[in-house]
Structures are given as structure tokens and as C-alpha cells.
Design goal:
The protein has 345 residues and is an alpha/beta fold. It has a single domain, classed as P-loop containing nucleotide triphosphate hydrolases (Rossmann fold, 3-Layer(aba) Sandwich). Strands 6-7-8-3-9-10-12-11 form an eight-stranded mixed sheet, sandwiched between helices. A four-stranded antiparallel sheet has the order 2-1-4-5, covered by helices on one side. A hairpin with a 7-residue loop joins strand 11 and strand 12. The structure holds adenosine-5'-triphosphate. Adenosine-5'-triphosphate binds next to strand 2 and helix 1. Keywords: ATP-binding, Nucleotide-binding, Transport. InterPro entries: AAA+_ATPase, ABC_transp_ATP-bind, ABC_transporter-like_ATP-bd, ABC_transporter-like_CS, Oligopep_ABC_C, P-loop_NTPase. This is Dipeptide/oligopeptide/nickel ABC transporter ATP-binding protein.
Length: 345
């Protein structure tokens, strides 16, 4: 399948190294250690398209989202919104940053933490509409804009929710308010960092269905970050798999989740007991399987970062970083694994 929808946001060679603070004797050493949180990541987000980013805890998923939202400066690489490079120096609070963050909005894992407990739904949404110049003129226009936002996230009638405080809402309703606040900016891309993992199992599906509905109606480009590869199959068009700061596999979700190529993705899929569930989490399961732990990101392994845990490890894997190889089963399926070197030839 060839994907033709327009690219909204693209990252190329995206890299983030966090400095490690020196302690004790290290203060005398000249070496400055860094956490290789994200290394050389390429991805595109397309209009009307959900891209899942899957991986264990600590693999760098949230850092990718924060880099794309420009909440962190990047160490290197490029981010382009509609082809235009978002300068590393874009000053937060400046006009260019405001314009960028209007178009690229983020939804966080914990809606309780992202909403201010002392303010009502009306306050949160009005503030967001005002910041983005979408509050209209006068009370009536503002009220219509608020009602429209709550309607979009299926919190109706608006009057039942506008004057509620976050603690008066359920977890799912709070996440819907957080989504409505993001929509107040009229964004083109939504970066959803584990948007359902803190919600009760019974309401996760409803929130994912809402996001899918918004993707279709508003033609949004969505990045869906999750531990749960089974939910990526259900919800995302494309799936990217990340391991220890690097992308290891990508392609259409059905193929990546049903016919995983990279040994790490196979492990993730095998760790998810029921492929049709969207409720669980692969986090921790891999460790339970007894195949080791993710490596230190301060001194990541040479070659393929998965090689110390890989059941198919070859000599080359220990020294040479595998590039993306076409897997050969679909047009878009690739794996950064030497096992697929032949498939490319
Ligand atoms: N501000 C920071 N300073 C130093 N190290 C950081 C910082 N933020 C993240 N890291 C490190 O970068 C690595 C990637 O973290 P990140 O939160 O992006 O992973 P993740 O896949 O989103 O994990 P989780 O699912 O647990 O949120 C981790 O080793 C983490 O400890």
C-alpha cells in the first residue's frame, strides 16, 4: 500500500542526549557522560493518519514526543512542519514557537496532572481558546466555541461539564477535557503520550475511538505513544518500534504486529498474551521472560543495541549498527536488523 496523504510533521536524524550530572570523584574527570535517550530517529506524521510509537519503558518514546512538541531542544537532527524546518533556536514564548505549538499539540498520560485542580473546565478551555485567538467576540461566541469543543469530545450537554472541577470528573472525562483543550488550538498534529494507560481498562477503548473519530473528522495527524503493541494494531495505521533510543522496525500496523520482523518486536508481540486485547501493557513482560534487560543508555552497546538480548545475534551485530532494510513483504515494512540484509539485495 502506498501512502499518499500529506506529511504534516517530519523528523530526520532526531537526537537527544541528556547530560549526566557528575558526582563524587567524577567531578575530577574530564569525561562528560550523557544519556543517549534518542538517537537518529526518522519519522513522519501524515494528515488523517495515526502513527504508533511502541516500546518498553525508557526506550525514548516520551522524549521523541517532547522533541516534536519543542518542549526540549534537540541535540541534533531536523524537525519540519509542512517542510519548514523548526529552528533549534526557536525561542519558547516567541511568535514562531506559538505558531508551531498551535499546530502541534500534545496530550499527556495523566489528565489529572495536566489540568489545574483549582480551575473549572470552562476556565481551562476558555484560556486555551483565548491564547489561540479562537474565543470569538462576546459571550455568545465564546459559549458556542466552548460547546463545540465539548461536543467534539462527546461531553454533552456542555452545561453539565463547563462548571465542573477536574476532581468532579472521571478519569476518562478528564482526558476528554484535556483533548478538548488541545483541540482549542485547532491543531494539525496531536502527540498523544500514553493517552489511555492511566485510565480504567473499561474506558480506554472509548477514548481511543474518540481519537480515531477526531482523526477522521478533523484530518489530524496523530502520534500515538504506547507500551501496548496490541493497541497499536487496533488503533494505528502505521507502527514504529523503538528500542533503547533507536527505531528498530516500522510499517503498516497490521504487518508489524502480525508479522513482526525485528527480534525485539517479536519479543514484544510474544509477550502480549492476547493479541486482540487493547487493555494490557507489554511493560515488564519482556523482563519476566528472562531474556535480559534494556541496556544502559549512558554506555549503550556498540552495533545493534538489542544484540546482548537477541536470540539470533551474529558477530556483525556486536560491532556494526544495522541500517533500515526492507523486509520485503509489504512496500513500507522495514527493520533495522542484519537478518534482513539479504532481503535487500
Ligand atoms: N530530563 C531528563 N534528564 C535526563 N535523562 C532523561 C530525561 N528525560 C528522560 N531521560 C532518560 O531518557 C531515557 C528515555 O526516557 P523516556 O521517558 O523518553 O522513555 P519512554 O520510552 O517514554 O519511557 P516511559 O514509557 O517510562 O515514559 C530514559 O533512560 C530516561 O531516564
Amino acid at each position: 500500500m502506498t501512502v499518499t496523504t500529506e506529511v504534516v510533521l517530519a523528523a530526520e536524524g532526531l537526537t537527544k542526549h541528556f547530560p549526566v550530572r557528575k558526582r563524587g570523584r567524577e567531578l575530577l574527570s574530564r569525561t562528560n557522560h550523557v544519556v543517549h535517550a534518542v538517537d537518529d530517529v526518522d519519522l513522519v506524521l501524515r494528515r488523517g493518519w495515526v502513527t504508533a510509537l511502541v516500546g518498553e519503558s525508557g526506550s525514548g518514546k516520551s522524549t521523541v514526543a517532547r522533541l516534536l512538541a519543542q518542549l526540549y531542544p534537540r541535540t541534533s537532527g531536523d524537525i519540519r512542519l509542512h517542510g519548514e524546518s523548526a529552528a533549534v533556536s526557536t525561542a519558547r514564548g516567541g511568535r514562531r514557537f506559538r505558531e508551531y505549538s498551535r499546530k502541534v499539540q500534545m496530550i499527556f498520560q495523566d489528565p489529572f496532572a495536566s489540568l489545574n485542580p483549582v480551575h473549572t473546565v470552562r476556565y481551562h478551555l476558555t484560556r486555551a481558546l483565548r491564547i489561540h485567538g479562537r474565543a470569538g467576540k462576546g459571550k455568545q461566541e465564546l459559549h458556542s466555541a466552548l460547546a463545540e469543543l465539548l461536543g467534539r469530545v462527546q461531553l454533552t450537554p456542555a452545561e453539565s461539564y463547563l462548571d465542573k472541577y477536574p476532581h468532579e470528573l472521571s478519569g476518562g472525562q478528564r482526558q476528554r477535557v484535556a483533548i478538548a483543550r488541545a483541540l482549542a488550538a485547532d491543531p494539525e498534529a496531536l502527540l498523544a503520550d500514553e493517552p489511555v494507560s492511566m485510565l480504567d481498562v473499561s474506558i480506554r477503548l472509548g477514548v481511543l475511538n474518540l481519537l480515531r473519530n477526531l482523526k477522521e473528522r478533523l484530518n489530524l495527524a496523530i502520534l500515538y505513544i504506547t507500551h501496548d503493541i496490541a493497541s497499536a494494531r487496533y488503533f494505528a495505521d502505521d507502527t514504529l518500534v523503538m528500542y533503547a533510543g533507536r527505531m528498530v522496525e516500522g510499517g503498516d500496523s497490521e504487518t508489524v504486529t502480525q508479522h513482526p520482523a525485528h527480534p525485539y518486536t517479536r519479543l514484544l508481540v510474544d509477550s502480549a498474551p492476547d493479541p486482540d486485547r487493547i487493555t494490557g501493557s507489554a511493560q515488564g513482560l519482556v523482563q519476566e521472560e528472562g531474556v535480559g534487560e534494556p541496556p544502559s543508555l549512558i554506555t549503550p552497546p556498540d552495533g545493534c543495541r538489542f544484540h546482548p538480548r537477541c536470540p539470533f545475534v551474529m558477530d556483525k551485530c556486536r560491532t556494526a549498527l544495522p541500517p533500515r532494510f526492507d523486509v520485503g513483504d509489504t512496500e513500507t515494512h522495514w527493520a533495522a536488523c542484519w537478518l534482513f540484509e539479504e532481503a535487500k539485495a
